[in-house]
Amino acid sequence: MERRAYKQALFAVRDSENALDIVQDAMLKLSEKYGTKPTAELPMLFQRILQNTIRDFYRRQKVRSLWVTLFSSLSAGREDEETDPLETLAAEDPSGAGALPADRLEQSQVIEIIEKELQRLPARQRQAFLLRYWEELDVAETAAVMGCSEGSVKTHCSRAAHALAAALRARGVEL
Amino acid sequence: MNEQQTAYRIRQLLNRGLDLDAGTLARLEAARERALSRQRVAAPSFVLGWADNVIGRFGGPASLIPRMLLPMAVLILGLIAVNQWRDSQTAAEIEEIDAAVLTGDLPLDAYLDKGFDAWLKRSSH
Fold it and tell me: Whole-angstrom Cα distance, residue A110 to residue A117?
């Protein structure tokens, strides 16, 4: 469980130290607040806590960036980092320059490409896709964790799957 | 390949990518242990505390006396307090009536007069 949670956090924040902190915080919150809940409820509760902890991280990062901006003169490049990743809607267009034929790729390379493409997805799409298909929550549970409608979950999942498939095809990876 | 099939293949590959380095695994394990230790502290106060209390009642006179005496003493003190409060309430009501009688315009003898009492009842109807 914690390995997938770590990976989820890593895809979201792209920093292993922060990802580890997030997973640790989420596990502590789960055990302290919901330790007496029935076991069947724990996976979903954990996912909800994990997603909230990731969101809190973004918020803290945003506030920190704001203060840094106020107290120092930074270049425009730095400001790009301040944008809330949750609000980033457009996925980066993956370049096909480094495309390699699928048969020449080792599995670990394919995994690496998938993980990078997952990181490039808009946050809500990545969140929906991972909760629905990796954590195997159903649509209603995913919607509850994300705090959105079931229709939104389906839309996010569909867009994420298509974006991932297209990005992988562009890099010469056939699933 | 449809959404489900794409998702299934990606899921398989993501699961194979869960082989993390030893350092990360160790830290995750430590975090898990820490979380579990917190749970062990938090949970027994509700569940095991109650169970222990129930078992302790049947654990012989040594455990029975302190476990039974304290709740009994609290109960008795509570009953005494309620009784005293009720007494004081009654006394206050009587005092109020007495004060009303003594400070009223009517002489005290009027209340003892049965004819006056009958007149009061009739006039109230």
Answer: 10
